[in-house]
Amino acid sequence: MKIRWHGHACFEISNDKTIVTxxxxxxxxxxxxxxxxxDIVLVxxxxxxxxxxxxxxxxxxxxxxTSRVKKVGDVLITGxxxxxxEVKGVKRGENIIFKFVLDDISFCHLGDLGHVPDDEALExxxxxxxxxxxxxGTFTIDGKTACDVMEKIMPKVAVPMHYRIGGxxxxxxxxxxxxxxxxxxxxxxxxNEMDFEKEDxxxxxxxxxxxx
Length: 212
Known about the structure:
The protein is mostly beta strands and 212 residues long.
């Protein structure tokens, strides 16, 4: 299994199948565009920095952008309704949390989550091996709230995303608040990509910190 980060909330998760999450076009937000092929593209919401499906190459690419349970080939995908802000979408609309399973490894991508998920959403999320969590604030939960969400979900691995990196033109925070709040949790700095098997996953939550 391989995870590669393309900046912002865009990840490439691949083994026999490749899933790409929330693709951006790069130039609109000041960073390099993803160069990626996929079988499935997940779009958490219809904002320009998350919905650039056209940039993803591949034949018969399946786009999933609704909050329901869907099976694409042998990949089970659950879309869980949530909001892009803390006032039930009044400011920025709705957001979809995606949970999916590849080769018996469960992933959860929180998209541009703007609030702490309620008990119903947490129950639907269930057990998670790898959690992609936004930490940059302004348009999503911030680092402190991201830690609270991580503690509620208790994944084996938490991957911070949607934070300020060099060149990014969006006014969001860096990852420092999240990493500081997560004091005591092992931080594994993995570079641009990570190859692993299910047996490699830790028994207790650790953070995989990607960079580009």
